[in-house]
Design goal:
- The chain is an alpha/beta fold and 555 residues long.
- 36% of the residues lie in helices and 21% in strands.
- The protein folds into 3 domains: 2-232, 3-Layer(aba) Sandwich (Rossmann fold); 245-421, ANL, N-terminal domain (Rossmann fold), CATH 3.40.50.12780; 426-553, ANL, C-terminal domain (GMP Synthetase, Chain A, domain 3, 2-Layer Sandwich), CATH 3.30.300.
- The longest helix has 17 residues, at 481-497.
- This is Putative fatty-acid--CoA ligase.
- Its EC number is 6.2.1.-.
């Protein structure tokens, strides 16, 4: 537990001094080229940037924003902000100009680093007047006040900054599934607690490799990749783009990987697009051949070296976890929130109980309130919401427990099962309450369904809106449609057979749009925005229900 009280910068300086020439960050530059930065390179660049930041004469603890997709200099900028005594404010790289303005203004950010972005023109208008921009080495075309070269021209700081454990490290704005984003405040002690305990849980070390591809501004990637690399000394590879993702994965051959359920489903769909599900399932059932096929599939995905595979941020269908296990990869479910550094519960290897998340992580206390809410307390719990004491008091109890908003149950061994969001539970017109998440989990096991949202607030009976996978959409457009419909009707019958009468689905509505971040249906962390789904299709609900059909095609 020696690392438990050591702050992130202290850990970084120790690693840099011990192996300055060891490879740390691997950044793709396009065309198959990569830039490799050692611990010493990262330290040198961060010190020069910190020196320049100090030269701006900002008050200590000023907020400095980072707007960029994942790249090596995202982490270097973060370290520089901390070395200069300031607070980093990461923003999602796909926000609208309005959202950018909202976060920068609310956080009172004095400067903003601009890095790798797909659509800077759509965001640029959100930078408030008087907030200077600094272009990172990989940046979009545009006018910026300063360049990374300007910062690197400064003489590096000569001191070794020591962060106070209680010092604010970052403000992470939540992705806002239900409304205006809130600024979650974490001090260095929160990060140190979660990272040091987490690394002991996973037994990771300096020979391990990570691939960074989920937004670094999200707490899960921040902890798993940035803090994980500091506290365990892992090498970090960065993904270049969606188009090169599989190549990036194969280049890194990560030994540890974190993914949201949609990513793990995408991998599965990619495999099924090359080999029909039935054929693969038949092969996997064969004793010796099955193991060989499983290894080959994992190698094709670049996942053959993985020792720690994690999945979180949304409910995971048990059938999906079982599928990976049959391939030879045990994917462990994790549970946490931005408000506790994503550090709360974890399935242990060899102890996975399908449908249950696992036990609380070391140092985490958990209790279930009278109304069934999961509440947790640990050294990773946030300091509160920035400039919002009222919401802070609503979220953290007087004895320090974090109200998660999730309903749950615990078994005798301490495993946790989530049964829905307290705020997502809706009431039908018959006055009966329905929790959508467990029903969605049952539907999501179907290999042709990629996204699902159960609705029913104020309706006589719930129904499920479904987005088909790419393979499913192809089948729907050709002669395989009849077979697909039989399969989906069978799924509906099977799911309804396990539900109470008031929960049973009137039918499945197969919507034509694919829900994505770009069209506003998903948050940047790929969670479905229920209110947007309901707004988009709500006018059709009565008509679809009236048809009383098991399958409705929304053409």
């Amino acid at each position: 537990m020696a690392d438990a009280v050591r702050m992130p910068l202290e850990i970084f300086f120790e690693r840099e001094a011990r192996h300055p020439n060891k490879r740390y960050l691997v950044q793709p530059l396009g065309g198959g080229r990569v830039e490799e930065l050692s611990w010493g390179d990262v330290g040198e660049q961060a010190r020069r940037a910190a020196s320049w930041l100090r030269g701006r004469d900002l008050p200590q603890g000023s907020r400095i924003a980072i707007i960029s997709k994942n790249c090596a200099h995202w982490i270097i900028a973060d370290l520089a902000i901390w070395m200069a005594g300031h607070v980093s404010v990461p923003l999602y790289p796909n926000l609208t100009a309005e959202s950018v303005h909202q976060v920068l203004e609310h956080s009172e950010s004095a400067l903003v680093f601009i890095g790798k972005l797909d659509d800077w023109p759509a965001m640029a208008g959100g930078i408030p007047q008087g907030v200077s921009t600094i272009a990172l080495p990989i940046h979009p075309q545009g006018e910026f006040d300063f360049s990374w070269a300007d910062l690197q021209a400064a003489n590096p700081i000569q001191d070794v900054p020591r962060s106070n454990p209680d010092q604010l490290a970052t403000i992470i704005y939540t992705s806002g599934t239900t409304g205006t984003p809130k600024g979650v405040m974490h001090n260095f002690s929160n990060f140190a607690f979660a990272a040091s305990h987490g690394m002991q849980l996973f037994q990771t070390g300096e020979e391990d490799r990570l691939l960074s591809y989920l937004p670094l501004c999200h707490v899960a990637e921040r902890m798993f990749v940035e803090m994980g690399s500091l506290y365990a000394g892992q090498t970090v590879f960065f993904a270049e783009s969606l188009e090169t993702f599989l190549d990036d994965l194969r280049r890194a051959r990560p030994t540890a990987i974190f993914g949201v359920p949609r990513i793990w489903t995408k991998f599965q769909m990619g495999v099924y697009s090359k080999m029909p599900a039935q054929k693969l399932d038949r092969l996997l059932r064969l004793p010796i051949i099955g193991r060989m096929v499983g290894r080959k599939v994992l190698a094709g995905l670049g996942l053959d070296a993985v020792r720690n595979a994690l999945c979180g941020a949304a409910p995971v269908p048990g059938a999906l976890l079982d599928w990976y296990k049959r391939l030879g990869l045990e994917v462990l479910e994790v549970y946490g929130m931005t408000e506790n550094c994503g550090y709360s519960h974890l399935c242990r290897k060899g102890e996975v109980k399908l449908g249950w998340i696992g036990r609380n992580s070391p140092g985490v206390e958990v209790r279930i309130s009278e109304d069934g809410e999961v509440q947790v307390r640990s050294g990773a719990t946030m300091q509160g919401y920035f400039k919002d004491p009222v919401k802070t008091a609503e979220t953290i109890t007087t004895d320090g427990f974090l109200r998660t908003g999730d309903k749950g149950q615990q078994d005798a061994e301490g495993n946790l099962r989530l049964t829905g969001r307290i705020k997502e539970i809706f009431k039908t017109s018959k006055g009966k309450y329905v929790a959508p998440a467990p029903i969605e989990n049952r539907l999501a096991v179907h290999p042709k369904i990629e996204q699902v949202c159960v609705v029913g607030d104020g309706l006589p009976q719930p129904m499920a809106l479904c987005v088909l996978s790419e393979v499913g959409r192809q089948e729907a457009a050709n002669s395989a449609r009849a077979e697909l419909e039989v399969s989906l009707r069978s799924l509906l019958e099977e799911v309804n057979g396990d539900l109470d009468k008031h929960e049973r689905l009137q039918g499945l509505v197969l919507v034509k749009e694919v829900w994505a971040v770009d069209n506003g249906f998903l948050t940047p962390t790929l969670k479905i925005k229920r209110n947007i789904v309901e707004d988009a299709y709500g006018k059709r609900f009565p008509e679809w229900l009236e048809r009383q059909e098991a399958l409705v095609w929304h053409e």
